[in-house]
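User: My instructor asked us to take a sequence, write out its structure as tokens, and then describe one feature of it. I'm not sure where to start. Here is the sequence I was given:
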Amino acid sequence: ISQPYVVAHMTELLALQGTEKVLEIGTGSGYQTAVLGRLAAQVFTVERIASLSQRAARILAELEIDNVHYFVGDGSLGWPEHAPYEAILVTCAAPRVPVPLLEQLADGGRMVTPVGPRGAQTLVRVIRTGETFKEEQLSAVAFVPLIGQYGW
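Assistant: Let's start with the prediction itself. The structure tokens for your sequence are:
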């Protein structure tokens, strides 16, 4: 589970205005999902472990956060059926930014993701302008691995 200040920092880097459709990779406990649900118009969250997704859905329903949509699957593939997304937040690390997530990022969209080897990564913000993707390397972080076709 990410520390609250890391969740806050990553969310801040998305620069949400309240109108965005957000893709979250790695629902986990649902804490980050709940934060996003309060700050965005819609959240689409992908978790590979069904029991975690179901538990988060129950908790967020109790909190009356009803703008979140849940999917169990390979997060490295995103959720293309609902793309494009104005913001993408990845809560697990991959060796490089997964190509399917870049493809699902809207023009003008922002993605925040940890990138690098297991155990020590760099937090990266990607901003899409047309077909150009600008990557900003921000800070050293350590996240659990993204398990999937474009992860580990």
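For the description part of your assignment, you could build on this observation: The mean pLDDT is 96. Try explaining in your own words what that tells you about the chain.
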